[in-house]
C-alpha cells in the first residue's frame, strides 16, 4: 500500500522561524526549536487546540476569551489618531458605552494599544470597525499579525467585523460601519425580497473571498431572528417574516461563507441573536432596560417561528452562535417541553441568554447540536446585565462561563475574568473548554500556518468587477413593484421634466444630492425641475427610519407610521396631487402606507439601493423589478396592535395586511412585474 504524503501548506512567517521534519516545513511558533503538537499541521484542529491550551497561562486563556474593537493608529475612532501610524500605541478608556452612550459606573477600557492587546492582555480576537481601503486593511491586519507572531506562543489574531457588503448611503457605527469598499448588495431585507436561497450560498462564498483577501476571518452575522414585531429597530437586519425563507437563507449563507467545513478560505460566521430577538415588547430593544424581556404570549411560538433558523445554522456548522441581551420571563405562554424547563414548576430562569444554561447548554448544544462556541453580544458584563444586576463583574464572568458562554464581545480588558479565577469563582480548568473551542476555529481557518495576506491582491479582489456586478444586479432585482399605473418602465432617453424629492430621517440632503446626481448621469432624457408644478413626473423617495439609539426611549411609543419617522407626509401628498408621482418607499420596517399610497401613480419598494440601480431597474434593466415583499405591511395601527409580538405578520391572518387603492394586498410575497 502506498503511504499518503501530506500536502505541504504554504507557510507565512515574518520571524523566519521554521522547522523541517520528514522533509516537511512547520512554523516554530514558540521559538523553542521543537515541533510541538500545536505547530504540527498534520494533526487535526481539535488535537492541536487541546495541546496548546495546556501550554497557556490563566492570563493567556482569559485574554483569548474576550473580543474587542481594535483600530489602526490613524483611525478616526481614536482620540489620539496620528496620520501614518499603522498600529495603535495607546489604550482608550471611556466613561460611557460607545454604542449605547449608557454611562459606566467606572471608566472602561474600550480598546487597547496593539502591544498591550497582544502581549499584556493576550487578546487574539479583534473587531475591525474602520472603513479601510483594501491596501490599508491588508497592511494593517498584516502588521498586527506580525506582533502576534512575535508573542510567546505565536498565536495569530482573528479579525471580526459586522457585515460589509451592503449598500449604505448612510453608514452607522455598530451596524454597518463600512461602505463603498467591498461589493455592495441590497440589505438583508432586499436579499430576502429576491426569494432566492441558492443565491445566498453564492453570496456567502463570493464575499468570503473579499474578506479573506483583506485579512478578515469572522463575520458578526447574519441575523437568524425572524422579525415578528414591526416596530423593532433591528427589523432591518433580518431576512424578514417567512420562517422557511429565513431558515433556508441562514443555512445557505453559513455554507457559502464557511464551506462544508472551516478552512483557510472560510469566513467563520457568528449567527445571532439566539433564540430569536424579534420578540420585542412594543418594539423596544434589550439594549435598554425597558426592552430587556422576551415575553411569548402565543403558546409554542418560540419553537414554531423563532428556533428553526438557528437549527439550520447548527446543521450547517455555524462556527459560533450569539445569544441576545434579553431575558425570558415566566409570564409567557408555554414554549418548551418540560425537559427544558429551568425547574419543576418554572419554565425559564429569568436571566439574560448569555447567562442561561438551559438555553445554551441543554437547548442549543444538546438538542440542537451546536458544535462551535458561544459568542456573547456586546456589553453583557458591564452594560446590558439583565437578570444578574446584583452580581459583581467577576461573578458575572463566572456565571456566564458556567452557563456556556465562551467569548465576550466588545471587551478589551480581561481583568475581571482573571479576578474570577483568583477569587475561586472559576478554576483555571474551567476556561479550557472555551479556549479549546476558540482555538479550534483559529486552527481550522489556517491562521497558524499563514495569517498574512497579499496587499496587492487585496486591491484586486475586494470590490472586484465580478463580485461587484453580482451585487449591483441583486440591487436592481430587489426593487419591488407594489402597484403601477402606466408610468413604468421608464424610458431613460425620452425628454421629460422630473421633480426629485427625498424625505426621511438621516442625512436626507446627502441622499437627495446622490439621487439628483444619478438622474443626471443615468436618466439621459431628464430635465430636473425644482417645482413639481413644472414637472411631467415626480420621483419621491420616502426614507423613514426607526433609529435604535435615537428613537428607542423609555416611555416613548415606537411607530411604523412614516410621518413619525421623518417623512414629510403633507409634502409628499401635495406632490402626488400635483403631478404623476413614482412613490418609492425604502423599507427598513413594515411601514403604514395608508396616507401616501392612494394618490401615487406607482408604488415601489426598495431595501437600500444606490439610485443608479433604482433608475436602471425602473427602466427594465435585468427584466426590471423582481422583488417580493419580505414582510406583510399592516393595514393600520389597530391591525398591528392586535397582533402578538411573537408571531410574524405573514401568519397573522387575512385581515392583517394592507390593501391598496387597486385592491392589491401587501402581504409577504407580494410583488408585480412589468
Automatic annotation (TrEMBL):
The organism's place on the tree of life at top rank: Bacteria
Alphabetical list of Gene3D superfamilies matching this protein: Glycoside hydrolase family 3 C-terminal domain, Glycoside hydrolase, family 3, N-terminal domain
Annotated EC: 3.2.1.21
Enzymatic reactions: Hydrolysis of terminal, non-reducing beta-D-glucosyl residues with release of beta-D-glucose
Presence of keyword Signal: yes
GO MF annotation list: beta-glucosidase activity
Family as reported in the entry's similarity comment: Belongs to the glycosyl hydrolase 3 family.
Name of the protein: beta-glucosidase
Organism of derivation: Corynebacterium hylobatis
Amino acid at each position: 500500500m502506498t503511504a499518503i504524503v501530506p500536502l505541504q501548506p504554504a507557510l507565512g512567517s515574518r520571524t523566519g522561524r521554521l522547522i523541517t521534519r520528514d522533509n516537511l516545513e512547520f512554523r516554530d511558533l514558540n521559538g523553542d526549536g521543537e515541533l510541538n503538537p500545536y505547530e504540527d499541521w498534520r494533526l487535526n484542529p481539535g488535537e492541536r487546540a487541546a495541546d496548546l491550551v495546556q501550554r497557556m497561562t490563566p492570563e493567556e486563556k482569559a485574554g483569548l476569551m474576550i473580543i474587542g474593537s481594535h483600530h489602526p493608529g490613524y483611525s478616526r475612532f481614536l482620540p489620539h489618531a496620528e496620520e501614518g501610524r499603522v498600529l495603535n500605541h495607546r489604550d482608550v478608556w471611556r466613561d460611557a458605552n460607545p454604542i449605547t452612550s449608557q454611562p459606566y459606573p467606572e471608566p472602561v477600557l474600550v480598546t487597547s494599544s496593539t502591544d498591550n492587546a497582544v502581549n499584556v492582555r493576550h487578546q487574539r480576537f479583534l473587531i475591525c470597525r474602520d472603513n479601510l481601503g483594501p491596501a490599508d486593511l491588508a497592511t494593517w491586519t498584516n502588521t498586527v499579525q506580525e506582533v502576534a507572531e512575535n508573542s510567546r506562543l505565536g498565536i495569530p489574531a482573528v479579525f471580526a467585523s459586522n457585515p460589509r457588503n451592503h449598500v449604505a448611503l448612510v453608514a452607522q457605527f455598530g451596524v454597518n460601519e463600512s461602505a463603498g469598499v467591498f461589493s455592495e448588495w441590497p440589505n438583508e431585507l432586499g436579499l430576502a425580497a429576491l426569494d432566492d436561497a441558492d443565491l445566498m450560498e453564492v453570496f456567502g462564498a463570493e464575499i468570503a473571498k473579499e474578506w479573506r483577501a483583506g485579512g478578515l476571518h469572522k463575520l458578526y452575522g447574519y441575523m437568524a431572528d425572524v422579525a415578528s414585531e414591526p416596530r423593532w429597530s433591528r427589523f432591518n437586519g433580518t431576512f424578514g417574516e417567512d420562517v422557511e425563507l429565513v431558515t433556508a437563507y441562514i443555512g445557505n449563507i453559513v455554507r457559502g461563507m464557511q464551506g462544508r467545513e472551516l478552512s483557510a478560505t472560510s469566513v467563520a460566521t457568528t449567527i445571532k441573536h439566539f433564540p430569536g430577538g424579534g420578540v420585542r415588547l412594543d418594539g423596544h430593544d434589550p439594549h435598554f432596560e425597558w426592552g430587556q424581556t422576551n415575553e411569548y404570549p402565543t403558546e409554542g411560538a418560540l419553537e414554531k417561528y423563532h428556533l428553526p433558523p438557528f437549527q439550520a445554522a447548527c446543521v450547517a456548522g455555524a462556527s459560533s452562535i450569539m445569544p441576545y441581551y434579553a431575558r425570558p420571563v415566566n409570564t409567557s405562554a408555554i414554549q418548551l417541553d418540560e425537559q427544558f424547563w429551568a425547574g419543576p414548576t418554572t419554565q425559564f430562569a429569568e436571566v439574560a441568554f448569555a447567562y442561561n444554561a438551559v438555553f445554551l447548554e441543554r437547548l442549543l448544544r444538546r438538542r440542537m447540536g451546536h458544535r462551535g462556541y458561544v459568542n456573547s453580544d456586546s456589553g453583557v458584563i458591564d452594560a446590558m446585565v439583565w437578570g444578574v444586576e446584583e452580581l459583581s463583574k467577576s461573578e458575572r464572568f463566572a456565571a456566564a462561563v458556567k452557563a456556556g458562554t465562551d467569548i465576550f464581545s466588545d471587551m478589551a480588558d480581561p481583568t475581571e475574568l482573571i479576578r474570577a479565577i483568583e477569587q475561586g469563582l472559576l478554576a483555571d480548568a474551567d476556561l479550557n473548554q472555551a479556549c479549546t473551542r476558540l482555538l479550534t476555529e483559529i486552527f481550522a481557518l489556517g491562521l497558524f500556518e499563514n495569517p498574512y495576506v497579499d496587499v496587492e491582491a487585496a486591491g484586486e479582489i475586494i470590490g472586484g468587477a465580478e463580485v461587484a456586478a453580482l451585487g449591483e444586479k441583486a440591487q436592481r432585482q430587489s426593487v419591488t413593484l407594489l402597484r403601477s399605473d402606466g408610468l413604468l418602465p421608464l424610458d431613460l432617453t425620452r425628454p421629460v421634466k422630473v421633480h426629485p424629492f427625498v424625505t426621511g430621517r438621516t442625512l436626507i440632503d446627502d441622499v437627495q444630492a446622490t439621487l439628483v446626481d444619478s438622474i443626471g448621469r443615468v436618466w439621459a432624457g431628464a430635465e430636473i425641475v425644482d417645482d413639481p408644478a413644472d414637472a411631467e413626473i415626480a420621483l419621491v423617495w420616502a426614507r423613514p427610519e426607526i433609529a435604535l439609539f435615537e428613537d428607542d426611549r423609555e416611555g416613548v411609543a415606537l411607530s411604523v407610521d412614516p410621518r413619525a419617522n421623518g417623512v414629510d407626509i403633507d409634502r409628499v401628498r401635495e406632490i402626488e396631487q400635483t403631478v404623476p408621482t413614482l412613490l418609492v418607499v425604502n423599507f427598513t420596517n413594515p411601514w403604514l402606507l395608508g396616507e401616501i399610497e392612494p394618490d401615487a401613480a406607482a408604488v415601489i419598494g426598495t431595501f437600500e439601493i444606490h439610485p443608479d440601480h433604482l433608475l436602471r431597474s425602473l427602466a427594465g434593466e435585468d427584466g426590471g423589478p423582481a422583488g417580493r415583499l419580505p414582510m406583510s405591511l399592516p393595514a393600520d395601527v389597530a391591525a398591528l396592535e392586535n397582533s402578538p409580538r411573537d408571531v410574524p405578520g405573514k401568519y397573522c391572518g387575512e385581515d392583517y395586511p394592507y390593501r391598496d387603492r387597486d385592491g392589491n394586498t401587501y402581504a409577504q410575497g407580494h410583488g408585480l412585474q412589468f
